[in-house]
Amino acid sequence: MASTKDLRRKAIRAFVMITMKPGTSEEIVRSRQIKGVKMANSVLGRFDAAVVIEAESLQDLRRIIYEMVERHPNVVHTETHVAIFHPPTITPP
Question: Alpha carbon of 1 to those of 4, 7, 85, 86: distances in Å?
Fold first, then answer.
């Protein structure tokens, strides 16, 4: 029987794409210490880092993003993508 349990632990999941000052992208990995940040990695490509955030509300999401930017003065730009679909958990028979 397939479970319809949602994979989300919180109401909102967002993917924050970050541009950093040159040579500082590893700093963003420290964001994992911020409550609500589920994953933070340096990446190659258009952006320097990708962060996954889970929050209870848009206000919480905003607070987490601002806290992350305040802790990392080398952040130049952020682009936030709020997830609109989360597939259900599939439990094997």
Answer: 10, 17, 22, 19
pLDDT in tens, 12-27: 899 999 999 998 888 8
**Residue 53 structure tokens:** 């955030």
Q: What gap in Å lies between CA 21 and CA 59, rounded to an integer?
A: 27
Count of beta carbons in the 10 Å neighbourhood of residue 47: 17
Query: What is the residue extent of each domain of the chain?
Result: 12-82
Q: Kindly state the tokens that stand for 77.
A: 């730009």
pLDDT digits (tens, 9 = 90+) for 34-62: 889 999 999 999 999 999 999 998 999 99
Residue 93 tokens, joined: 């028979």
Q: Which CATH architecture has domain 12-82?
A: 2-Layer Sandwich (3.30)
